Amino acid sequence: MSTVSRSIGYVLHARPYRETSQLLELFTVSEGRMAAVLRGARNRGRHAAQPFRRMELAWSGRGQVQTLTQCDEIGAMRLKGDRAICGLYVNELAMKLLPRQIQAPDLFEAYEQVLCQLADAGIPVERPLRQYELALLKWLGEGLEFLSSDDLEPGAHYVLEPQQTPRRAGAGEMDSPHCITGRALTALLCGQLEDREDRRQARRVLRLLLDHHLDGKPLVSRQLIARGRSDATS
Question: In this predicted model, what pLDDT tens digit does every residue of 151-162 receive, in sequence order?
Fold first, then answer.
């Protein structure tokens, strides 16, 4: 008899599977990213598994794809329009950058936080998206967790290159796409990206770092965002 496992989680991606089921990519507290089948999903109608909903999950089985025995919504983030597209971006990054079945409780917390803030129309989307990207890059081992805003000089420039220790820019590096001012980097680390130029620099540098890990994998959500607005995300 298979052991039943339980966790809180979210649907990152769902697609039809066979006649009435769904094949889901999930992000859970206990397992990180995982794949599972929800049988009879079409019979659940609007209660079928969907993104941006906090779910109570239970599953059993062996191998890479589990079988859900419970999939109950216990909360939902109401994302509409551009904010829903930003939510798709958040999910797509997790789908393409997180390996399956590796616990990531800190990143799960950052994931929940970005969804909550995207659902709040009073919060500009730029701030939570950059914080989520930053948390993801720290989890991927980019060394950004060692940066301290106390050690940065606002007027200085710093270089953030993939898989390299962040460092102060040398002569001739001020125009590097990996370069960011101390002021913008401090605002990013403190979650206070209020200035437009600081936001632009942070967005550019984080995108370059993420692109290194994406290794050429395209993000559909970026294309959708680019069509709708120019200053929302990477």
Answer: 899 999 999 999
